[in-house]
Description:
The structure holds two protein chains of two kinds. By secondary structure, chain A is of the alpha+beta class. Helices cover 16% and strands 40% of the residues of chain A. Chain A contains seven helices and 23 strands. In chain A, strand 6 (117-118) and strand 7 (121-122) form a beta hairpin. Chain A is globular and about 75 Å long. Chain B is α+β, with helices and mostly antiparallel strands. Chain B has 39 helices and 14 strands. In chain B, 46% of the residues are buried. The chains are: A alpha+beta, B alpha+beta.
Amino acid sequence: MIHSLFLINASGDIFLEKHWKSVVSRSVCDYFFEAQERATEPENVPPVIPTPHHYLISVLRHRIYFVAVIQSEVPPLFVIEFLHRVVDTFQDYFGVCTEAAIKDNVVVVYELLEEMLDNGFPLATESNILKELIKPPTILRTMVNTITGSTNVGEQLPTGQLSVVPWRRTGVKYTNNEAYFDVVEEIDAIIDKSGSTITAEIQGVIDACVKLTGMPDLTLSFMNPRLLDDVSFHPCVRFKRWEAERILSFIPPDGNFRLLSYHVSSQNLVAIPVYVKHNITFREGSSQGRFDLTLGPKQTMGKAVESVLVSSQLPRGVLNANLNPSQGAYTFDPVTKLLTWDVGKINPQKLPNLKGTMNLQAGASKPDENPTINIQFKIQQMAISGLKVNRLDMYGEKYKPFKGIKYMTKAGKFQVRTYQHFLMVQTSM
Amino acid sequence: MLEPDPNYFSSFVCSGEIFELKAELNSDKKEKKKEAVKKVIASMTVGKDVSALFPDVVNCMQTDNLELKKLVYLYLMNYAKSQPDMAIMAVNTFVKDCEDPNPLIRALAVRTMGCIRVDKITEYLCEPLRKCLKDEDPYVRKTAAVCVAKLHDINAQLVEDQGFLDTLKDLISDSNPMVVANAVAALSEIAESHPNSNLMDLNPQTINKLLTALNECTEWGQIFILDCLANYTPRDDRESQSICERVTPRLSHANSAVVLSAVKVLMKFMEMLPKDLDYYGTLLKKLAPPLVTLLSAEPELQYVALRNINLIVQRRPEILKHEMKVFFVKYNDPIYVKLEKLDIMIRLASQANIAQVLAELKEYATEVDVDFVRKAVRAIGRCAIKVEQSAERCVSTLLDLIQTKVNYVVQEAIVVIKDIFRKYPNKYESVIATLCENLDSLDEPEARAAMIWIVGEYAERIDNADELLESFLEGFHDESTQVQLQLLTAIVKLFLKKPTETQELVQQVLSLATQDSDNPDLRDRGYIYWRLLSTDPVAAKEVVLAEKPLISEETDLIEPTLLEELICHIGTLASVYHKPPSAFVEGSRGVQHKRLPGSTGLGESLESPDTGSAAGGSDAPPAVIPSQGDLLGDLLNLDLTPPATTGPPPPPTSGMQLGAMDLLGGGLDSLMGAGFGAAPAASPASFSAPVSGGLDDLFDLGGGVGMPMGAYNPPKTVWLPAMKGKGLEISGTFARRAGIIQMEMTLINKAMSVMTDFAIQFNRNSFGIAPAGPLQVLTPLSPNQTIEVALPLNTVGPVMKMDPLNNLQVAVKNNIDVFYFSCQYPISVLFVEDGKMERQVFLATWKDIPNDNESQFQIKDCHLNSDAASSKLQGSNIFTIAKRTVDGQDMLYQSMKLTNSIWVLAELRVQAGNPTYTVSIPLLLVESESSNVFLFQSQATKGKKGTLI
């Protein structure tokens, strides 16, 4: 089970440690620092590091390494999932998960960690239950506590922890009863140099914000449930009902939670909402390269593509770039060689374009690498997979709740590969 | 903020502040006390030593303020160990809190007590713990369950004496699923330190309870329960199926650890399901989506998932065969994810998707990250070797990459092209010219060695091979060992191919290797080549330029038995490191090896009893030659290194002489000796060489009165265990049937894939035994299939003296790899049918033998009379020429003839009523012109006396 936890910031300082069993010396982190030194990028530190007596399992979130120490055979995913839960809880409690926030709330952090794990066994990791045990710090509560002398530790046994619906507390009351669902889809794609799709898949989630009085029992049905063949549910969803009827039936937790995540795989046809025309070339013997990039919408069902941001890692040999955007602004960092272009919204009548020259070191040979173009965008009011909610019904309570569904599509890892025309010698394959 | 938040991190070093805190802790004001404890905790959290405040903090424990109590508990847990005497002060409060009406406080008390790792406290803990384990409130019970594990960690004996383990087992039947889950978790942890304690007594009833609790407990509880279920072995396929059905919903859980634990249970129990079952197919289909989903999670999760998918793909490639694209690499994946994805892409590569895969790999080869680019280039080579149809495209892709002249790409490409040459000889040698152009840019040892190998191997096609190799020779001593060895071999190859022009070069390299080098490997190899070349250039050619076994398609597959064990450990550290848990986890003392259930024979393969041992000394398992993949190397290592390896090379003949002397010393003698030495006690040390089924078997006449007559054939023994044969198990024996020696083998496929293309080869051996035809395995051997093969042998193969004499080294090839093992044939299969000597000749010869050439052996516990023995022996071609009776003793005079025309004469003395036979072998007489048996001639003329009683 999980022995200890160390939090390490970007500059390599251990700023918090927690031990659930006997104390493990900080020096165990030296192995982690070694691995960190070897890694070229912060995110390249391997997640599982063996040491002579322990194993270090780490995640990197918000530029903080959460390093768990284990001594015996423990499923690594169990540890990683738990660390994620710690990060989520901190974020939930303090609004942000930063070194400063953690240091400011160190006692609450310590209380939380003690409550989340007992002797290495997870105890209470549901945010609902934790909030009943340890109240999140708010300005108002700090004030009230100071005046009345009361504490931010709950005196009551968390009600949900032992019931059949451990995710929901009892006695919930609201004056405005409302249930909002956000269908958010991220599209991951690799587009090759000729514009055809190599792989494309959709990661979708339905996040809910449910503020309903009492013990509501909800059902959510879809117009096209067949899209969802690869799904992960919140524990509240009745799996049998889904298997039989393809209807989501559940007693929701109180507040924000992720009802469902799903994956539309590359087997199905995935619509690609943008296209890129690019021409990036370097000529042998010349110290200049040409750069020309145009974006356009594609398969968007008439919805606007917004918040478009293009970034590309240009070859190491590029000294600077002299480009002209038809809209938005671009930056080129000569140190990291990262080109970013904040495009904004794509106007189908006047396609955004970025054009100009790149300067190479004089006399340097042509670069070896092919730059990859990374695109971020958002499309409101549309789920790119075509998923649509049919209806939401509530049983078990008498009042009439306010209901809302919102759709959004975002780019996940959306990458377009380019190639430099001189590089590949065509072969007779 | 309205209230200035106290910054607990302001410097906390001076003792003045400790003093100040002390005062605050002893304040009468509750609020001040609490703030003081908070400050103490804050310093503790960042690793400052505040243990000096122990008594003051413990004094704050007696409070009804829950937060203050919790804070004090936090402090106690941290410092009790360093202040054990002070910690006793806290005991009373704990005991009292365990009786508190509020279950939250009861649970908190029992939880904290368990965390105070002080021996003295544990005895006070027992009573409160016993109560809490039976508490009416499930929250307290589940906390108490974990406390048992804590206590066990501190004092295992105490936990057993107090009977807590039984209480814990009872909790598995608790009505509350959370209690069940925690009891399982606690028991699993305890069981880890007691591998054989059988704590988790799993039976269908408990399994049913676990499955019920599985649906209702928290995600963490589900992981514990699933991991526990994975240890159970269902009674039959129906139970297996019903468990699978109840576990599959877990595949849709949002927690990836739950998903992977469920995958483990399903992968294991699936083994028991018949493949033609509809449900089996359904299950296979259900496994793919959750695995794919894991790959869209955070990179750390992806990494663990990919390591496990790597195992799953090896065991059941069909699950993910259509999902190649999800393993395509995104340029901003962390490097550890990229490398794992690449590995799985190669495993999934097939004829159907190879074009796509190659296009991707080519793309990766132009990325920035050097490690990744190298692995991508290597991957192209592995694809060529794995998918034959793609080899040509792979080679041309590699040539493209060489054209880029990017240094590390070129070097990596040359290394893999060498492997492609070995897999497809005489196909792609046209590219050698291109490779040679890049000779100068190679600066890494592996690439240099590969290039030198290519030049040496194809010396006859490269006009200036001698110049190329000579250019390397200039800096010979600056090269790494790898390159030096390769250069030596390459030049010897060149010499054998073009002897006229390269004599000088070979002498130069031999002297560099033998006289100017300190490296023993290099020196030895140099001497071996030198001696070979000067003794017998023809033999040298046969050895050095021997046909190499083709390299296998997948050299890096995990060996099947380990794979099976790892499949049982999916989701664990073992699965991330691809090593059995016993190999690396500290504290798991003597972990039991888990095996997959079901599939035939898997269980037995470990303990396959060596039934072949009829008498002492013959039950040694067949020695397997370490499969270095290079038969040439093995051949060279065989018996060519007589004791005099140090010093200057001996004159060319001495090797042979030594060999012959060696033979005289113990060779045939040990063979016969071990054969007849039925009583192990009677065997001196020199006979300890295990002879599987020697002559003793022949004389194993024990219960044999009613046995059918005929040659004695020893039962089959395992020659190649599945562990070493990548799933192929070979057991076998030798027999002589109708005058033909046969090697009778049973091949069992214990791997998961079909095996085809079997072939067999023998190394040179003492009697020139060689296959008389190809190995007849016509149909592919599907998993779990067993096949019997009889391979006829002849004795016209090349001869080399082996130790022991009847040792036979065998190489078996199939589509997976080449495997090496050695076995020993009973000498009796070599006795020919016309081994009956003319009576007159026998007598004359017998008389000519000096008496001191006689060897004697005793055979104990033979209850046959002389006639029965005689007719039984005749079945094995041991003929009785004459019989004499002296003083109630029957003397049988016998002759036998070996395939190489060596006669063996023997006298067998049988005394009625005495179960001990005495065998005298006065002489091994040779009547042969065959030149290849000179070794035995010298044996015959000199003989050797050794009387053994």
